[in-house]
C-alpha cells in the first residue's frame, strides 16, 4: 500500500463515520475514523453475503455508502451490547 491508498482509506473512513453519526448520533474525528474503517469491513461483508452490488456511478461513492451502512450496523450492535 502506498501513501495515497492509505489517505483514501482514511478519508472514506472519516466520511462514512460522519454519515453514520448523522443517522445514529455520536461525534469526534477519531470516532468517525474508527467506526468508518470498521464499518467498511462490516459493510463489505454484509453486502457480499447478501449478494448486493451497488452501482452509484463512482467507485469511491460506492465504498463510502457501504462503509457508512456498515458503521451504522456496528454502532447499533455496540449500543445493544453496552
Helical amount: over 70%
**Which structural class should the secondary elements be placed in?**
mainly alpha
Mean pLDDT across the residues is: 89
Residue fraction in strands: under 5%
Largest sheet, in brief, is:
none
Helix count from the secondary structure assignment: 3
Based on Cα principal axes, name the global outline: globular
- Terminal residue distance: 35 Å
How many strand segments? 0
Structure description:
- The protein is 82% helix and 0% strand.
- With 82 residues, the protein is mainly α.
- It has three helices and no strands.
What attributes characterize this protein structure?
single chain, mainly alpha, 0% strand, globular, 3 helices, 82 residues
Summarize the structure in short.
The protein is built from 3 helices and no strands. With 82 residues, it is mostly helical.
SSE layout:
Layout lengths: L2 H22 L4 H22 L8 H23 L1
Helix pairs in contact: 1-2, 1-3, 2-3
Amino acid at each position: 500500500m502506498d501513501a495515497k491508498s492509505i489517505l483514501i482509506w482514511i478519508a472514506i473512513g472519516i466520511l462514512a463515520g460522519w454519515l453514520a453519526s448523522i443517522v445514529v448520533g455520536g461525534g469526534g474525528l477519531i470516532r468517525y475514523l474508527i467506526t468508518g474503517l470498521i464499518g467498511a469491513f462490516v459493510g463489505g461483508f454484509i453486502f457480499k453475503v447478501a449478494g448486493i452490488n451497488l452501482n452509484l456511478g463512482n467507485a469511491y461513492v460506492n465504498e463510502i455508502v457501504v462503509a457508512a451502512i456498515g458503521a451504522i450496523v456496528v454502532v447499533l450492535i455496540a449500543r445493544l451490547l453496552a
